[in-house]
Design a protein that fits this description.
Blueprint (H helix, E strand, L loop, with lengths): L8 E3 L16 H5 L1 E5 H5 L5 E7 L2 E7 L3 E6 L2 E6 L2 E5 L5 E5 L6 E6 H11 L3 H5 L3 E4 L4 H19 L5 H21 L17 H17 L6 H8 L3 H12 L3 H19 L4 H7 L5 H12 L3 H5 L4
Parallel strand pairs: 1-3
Antiparallel strand pairs: 2-9, 3-8, 4-7, 4-9, 5-6, 5-8, 7-10
Helix pairs in contact: 5-6, 7-9, 8-9, 11-12
Length: about 300
């Protein structure tokens, strides 16, 4: 199932856009790029129907402690009973149909800072964080109790601004991601949330696309084109584009551009770097070329994005 991108809304939290601050530190992310709430607080205002949307820069963790839900991620629907955990990385299309008695916490946090932290404390977490997961709970009482303890502690740091709450909160989020990673180790393939059509794709094709995504994540600042990536992967540029279109719903060039745009938005949001510095850091020849690229992708200039106020 391929969803028309023109119909998919792009949000920070569902139903609202992030207000801008020109410069943010890593610890600022705790208050400006993190949110904790319970499912009914927002969903009841939408009559328990959350339409397909994307969080461009935020990952989301939802825990169903009560009720049931139908979740759609990248065109694939899953029926869930509580207790369950749903993990959705940035840039994945998702929607929910929730029962009116549903309850549980929802954590929304900027993905890039968490990936940066993961590179330091546990690099393999990066792979976990780039994959949507639907995780049934209730089979390991000790693991579930540990999960609840982490969620309670995160909520406490979110609501009580005591000494060191930002550092404590970010550390607890890292621990939560590790805990989710532990859950994923015991999952069967049926718990993997696939991108459109990928469940029928041969393993070789999926491996090529995954290697491509990994290379893009490493090399996106070096201005490599589709031909260069394809050569490194041992396929033609046409083959690579057909594979990414089939498995990801995007051309190879769109995958590269999406990664560059993600980093550009991060720098414009979380740093005080000049647009010229950001352009150079992302491998653009000059600021004007970067501005044209950004405007084509976002329909606004980098300066307009940085000073936006929704």
């Amino acid at each position: 199932m391929n969803l028309p991108t023109t119909r998919i809304k792009h949000y920070e939290l569902y139903g609202e856009r992030e207000t801008e601050s020109a410069s943010r530190t890593v610890l600022d992310a705790w208050t400006n790029s993190f949110h904790f709430e319970f499912i009914p607080e927002r969903s009841k205002h939408y009559n328990w129907e959350i339409e397909p949307h994307v969080h461009d820069s935020f990952l989301q963790i939802m825990v169903l402690n009560q009720g049931h839900a139908e979740v759609m991620i990248n065109g694939n629907k899953t029926q869930l009973q509580s207790p369950s955990l749903i993990f959705i990385p940035a840039q994945n299309v998702h929607s929910f149909h929730l029962s009116s008695d549903v309850d549980g916490p929802v954590i929304t946090v900027a993905q890039q800072p968490m990936e940066s932290m993961a590179k330091i404390v546990m690099p393999e977490l990066g792979q976990v964080m780039r994959q949507p997961w639907v995780i049934p709970l209730g089979t390991d009482a000790k693991a579930d109790a540990a999960l609840q303890s982490l969620l309670d502690a995160i909520e406490h740091e979110w609501r009580v601004h005591s000494y060191g709450h930002a550092a404590a909160g970010l550390s607890l989020l890292a621990a939560l991601l590790v805990h989710i990673g532990r859950y994923t180790q015991s999952l069967t393939p049926k718990n993997l949330v696939q991108t459109p059509k990928s469940r029928h794709a041969p393993a070789r094709q999926a491996q090529v696309v995954e290697k491509f995504r990994g290379l893009v994540n490493e090399k996106f600042k070096t201005n490599l084109g589709v031909d260069a990536y394809a050569k490194r992967l041992g396929v033609s540029a046409g083959q690579l584009t057909r594979l990414t279109k089939n498995l990801l719903g995007q051309t190879a060039l769109e995958v590269i551009h999406a990664r560059i745009l993600f980093e550009a938005e991060r720098d414009l949001t979380y740093t005080s770097k000049s647009i010229k510095q950001i352009a150079a850091n992302l491998g653009f020849e000059d600021e004007a070329y970067f501005s044209r690229f950004f405007r084509k992708q976002k329909n606004q200039t980098p300066s307009e994005f940085r000073t936006r106020d929704f």
